[in-house]
Specification:
- By secondary structure, the protein is an alpha/beta fold.
- Helix 10 crosses helix 11.
- It has 3 domains: 2-70; 110-288, 3-Layer(aba) Sandwich (Rossmann fold), CATH 3.40.50.450; 299-365, Arc Repressor Mutant, subunit A (Orthogonal Bundle).
- It starts with a helix and ends in a 6-residue tail after the last strand.
- The protein is elongated.
- The protein has helices at residues 2-10, 17-27, 30-35, 38-41, 47-55, 61-70, 121-136, 149-159, 181-190, 207-217, 232-242, 257-267, 276-282, 290-301, 306-314, 322-329, 340-352; strands spanning 74-77, 96-101, 110-114, 140-143, 164-167, 192-195, 221-224, 246-249, 271-272, 320-321, 356-359, 362-365.
- The chain contains 17 helices and 12 strands.
- The strands form 2 sheets. The protein has a 9-stranded mixed β-sheet, with helices on both faces.
Length: 371
């Protein structure tokens, strides 16, 4: 019963989480706060806060609570035993959280994978690679379900049969961005959607920096894939460091603006993640069968001809136009005499074999080539 009144209190963004907790400790229950008169409330709240708190009782809040229950959304206040242990001692912990699906398991290690929305092909590959391999090893992948690195890492985790958890800057019943609808639905089934904002809350810009403390708070380690110098990703990093969390960074080329933030974090002393296996070892886990996976990849390369292998060596994760590829052939001992038809035929063969991606007359690697 008290959860219902805690739900009411959680809806007031003009009252800080700390103030709500202080009131709860003083009154003994959320219901006692709800039933308190203006005089008692004035000990903690100013006149504007009191007016909105009292007026809210006539704003149909009980109907909102019923709607939440009907949507299978749970509200977990900070004093509930289900409230995540990892969040209990962070700065400005949420008074309560809303969950659609379930919460990360306390006994499992968790990694937050974050990065740029407009990521590069390199960033796309790394996000999916780490997301899938960490999840396959039993790690919970946590992110903000945003466009770009966040969503890609979560998809990788789910594709690998693992768990993913999205922390939103809106209500858990609001899919944002809308383009992530399938990810939003699948995450509920295989993990959970989490927010401190009551259902129906719109994705306002001011909510996103604040929700980042929950992303880092739920994680044992934060991994940054790509980030510009001034970005929301670095806000999450600052919060993670304040919370005492380890931060790892994917290094990038010094000429790429998307890597400036990451390389800067390395200079500041953050850890460097060169591959998922290294990160797993740093987390005290054995990267099971990683050697077998490498052997399997090398076995796949054995089916390719010398010309196909040389063609792969000229490509990168970034898509390249056919004329760019033809220029590179001139400096390759084995391919310098290749004609345009021969080049196209070889590239299409590699596309069909699953080594190369193709968009119109642009070609790129599906995974790094290291034969």
């Amino acid at each position: 019963m008290d959860e219902k009144y805690a739900f009411y209190l959680s809806g007031f963004e003009n009252i800080t989480n700390r103030k709500k907790e202080e009131m709860f400790q003083a009154f003994g229950s959320a219901m006692s706060i709800y039933n308190a008169g203006e005089k008692k409330l004035s000990i903690f709240l100013n006149s504007a806060q009191i007016d909105s708190f009292l007026a809210g009782k006539n704003a149909g809040w009980e109907k909102k609570y019923e709607n939440m229950m009907n949507q299978n959304i749970r509200f977990i206040p900070f004093y509930d035993k289900e409230y995540p242990y990892r969040l209990r001692h962070i700065e400005d912990k949420p008074f309560g959280i809303f969950v659609k699906g379930r919460l990360p398991r306390e006994h499992k290690k968790s990694v937050a994978i974050i990065g740029a929305r407009d990521c590069s092909e390199y960033g796309r590959f790394v996000a999916e690679d780490f997301g899938s391999k960490l999840a396959a090893a039993g790690i919970s992948v946590i992110s903000g379900m945003a466009r770009g690195v966040d969503g890609i890492a979560m998809r990788g985790a789910l594709k690998a049969g693992g768990e993913a958890f999205g922390v939103l800057g809106c209500g858990v019943d609001v899919c944002y961005p809308g383009s992530n609808r399938s990810l939003y639905e699948e995450t509920q089934r295989r993990g959970g959607i989490i927010s401190e904002y009551i259902p129906g809350t719109a994705p306002l810009a001011l909510h996103f920096p604040k929700r980042n403390r929950i992303i880092s708070g739920l994680a044992d380690v934060v991994l940054v894939v790509e980030a510009r110098v001034k970005s929301g990703t670095l806000i999450t990093v600052d919060m993670a460091l304040e919370q005492g969390k380890d931060v790892y960074v994917i290094p990038g080329r010094i000429t790429d603006s998307l890597s400036e933030g990451c390389n800067g974090l390395i200079l500041q002393g953050c850890g460097v993640a060169l591959n998922p296996e290294q990160l797993l070892r740093d987390l005290g886990m054995d990267p099971n069968n990683s050697g077998n996976q490498q052997n399997a990849k090398e076995g796949n390369y054995k089916q390719l001809s010398l010309e196909q292998l040389e063609m792969l060596s000229l490509l990168s994760l970034d898509l390249q136009a056919l004329p760019q590829i033809m220029d590179k052939l001139k400096d390759n001992t084995y391919l310098k005499n290749f004609t345009l038809p021969q080049t196209m035929e070889t590239l299409i063969e590699l596309v069909i074999a699953g080594f190369v991606k193709n968009e119109g007359s642009y070609f790129g690697l599906l995974q790094p080539f290291s034969h």
